[in-house]
Amino acid sequence: MQKGKGTRAVHAGVEHCPATGAIMTPIYQTSTYVQDGVGNHKGYEYSRTLNPTRHALEKALAELEGAKYGLAFGSGLAAMDNLMKILKPGDEVISTNDLYGGSYRLFTTVFQNYGIVFHFVDLSDMDAIKSVLNENTKIVWIETPTNPMMQITDIKVVAETVSGNDVIVCVDNTFATPMLQQPLSEGADLVMHSATKYLGGHSDVVMGCLMLNDDELDSKLRTLQNSCGGVAGPMDSFLVLRGIKTLHLRMQRHCENGRSVVDFLNSHPMVEKVYWPGLPSHPGHDVASRQMSGFGGMISFTIKGDNLATANKFVESVSLFTLAESLGGVESLIGHPATMTHAAIPKDVREKVGVTDGLIRLSLGVEDAEDLIADLSKAFDLI
Fold first, then answer.
1. Is 48 labeled as catalytic in the residue annotation?
2. Whether residue 33 lies in the annotated active site
3. Measured CA distances, 88 to 110, 139, 220 (Å)
4. What CATH number was assigned to the domain covering residues 5-244?
5. Crossing angle for the helix pair 234-244 and 52-64, nearest 10 degrees?
6. Res 89 pLDDT > 90
7. Is 305 helix (H, G, I), strand (E, B) or coil?
8. What are the residues whose beta carbons fall under 8 Å from the beta carbon of 120, sequence distance 6 or more?
9. Of these residues, 81, 98, 154, 172, which one is catalytic?
10. Among 50, 149, 338, 343, which residue is least crowded by beta carbons within 10 Å?
11. Residue among 8, 54, 138, 197 flagged as catalytic
12. Is 222 a catalytic residue?
């Protein structure tokens, strides 16, 4: 019987310690393992290759995403780096044109130098995808919802569009999490997360992961993981194992707070536009309503005047929200994408998709919604 997502969050990857009966997965803080004879061991030789704590997490992550395999890395970018290393010079990648700044930087300042060609297009426009799709295309890189403009991509339609071209469809599912969206069931081949965010959920770990079903691709990725060594450590693996046990509860609260704060922002005279897929006016609302079970706690909005000075004063005027990079923790964060998370993207490129100087991004935590709204209201009064 297929277990519910909440049940999977609590129990995925759990194997009680046979030596002590410990209900929580132990932190195996070890680099190597005793062998009874040459090649005679208990499945673990060296912790870069496999560590019991990381192994438990990788199984848990796979179960959460409805996948056969999971791989955990030292960061989200390390996970992306591992995937991109399956490519060779001349291969091409089609990516969303509203992309997290770190992902854009990895593509353009690292892998572009090795002869990989990147096309940044509107992935809601199938004609735009077809215009750059060719025999060299190897990966389609999707963020949905995107960071920070909350664009929605129809995963199933993109997968159908590139079907038959031997293309890997990969979805960065960081914003939605497995609780709100299951890309593999929509036709994606591979799912990536910055586990630093909602999966860890407490702003105390940096990690990334990949989940997939294909045996051959898993073998390639695992060989690269071992060969290049960008693995997640046992302590971080333990923290994410702990974090995912409450993922379903936290995501419910993130979504509830998202709705409350969006209603407030939509009615405020100093807000020019709100970006959140739960709004019926959002161009991707219908697709999001079909492929997501909730709309999340990530919101972007533009302050009237759309200028840097006003935006800076606003983000510095809150007290309950914390001005900081990252997202997805239990505490609410506020950021200015143009100068923080997306500063690596040239100004003219980011402004084409709406990342202007007046854009502010919120990561709604699990506090009481009325307190978050009061904090934002006070900041509006101050500007």
1. yes
2. no
3. 13, 12, 14
4. 3.40.640.10
5. 30
6. yes
7. coil
8. 95, 96, 97, 99, 104, 349
9. 172
10. 343
11. 197
12. no
Say whether 172 is catalytic. Answer: yes
For residue 32, list its beta bridge partners.
Answer: 46
The predicted pLDDT at position 368 comes to 98
State the Cα–Cα distance between residues 95 and 82, nearest whole angstrom: 17
The token pair that represents 262 in the structure block:
């969006």
Place of tokens 């019987």: 1
Sign of CA dihedral 286, 290, 295, 298: negative
Q: What angle do CA 74, 327, 291 make, to 5 degrees?
A: 95
Choose, from 48, 156, 242, 273, the residue flagged as catalytic: 48
Question: How far apart, in whole angstroms, are the C-alpha atoms of residue 317 and residue 328?
Answer: 21
Residue 286: which residues within 8 A CB-CB, separation 6 or more? none
CA distance 296 to 65: 17
Beta-strand ranges (E) seen in the chain are 69-73, 92-96, 117-121, 137-143, 168-172, 190-194, 208-212, 271-275, 298-303, 322-323, 333-335, 359-363
Active-site annotation holder among 8, 54, 81, 100: 100
pLDDT digits (tens, 9 = 90+) for 240-281: 999 999 999 999 999 999 999 999 999 999 999 999 999 999
What ranges do the domains of the chain cover?
5-244, 247-382
207: closest CA among 38, 339, 60?
Answer: 60
pLDDT tens track for 165-179: 999 999 999 999 999
pTM of the entire structure? 0.95
At the fourth CATH level, the homologous superfamily of domain 247-382 is: Aspartate Aminotransferase, domain 1 (3.90.1150.10)
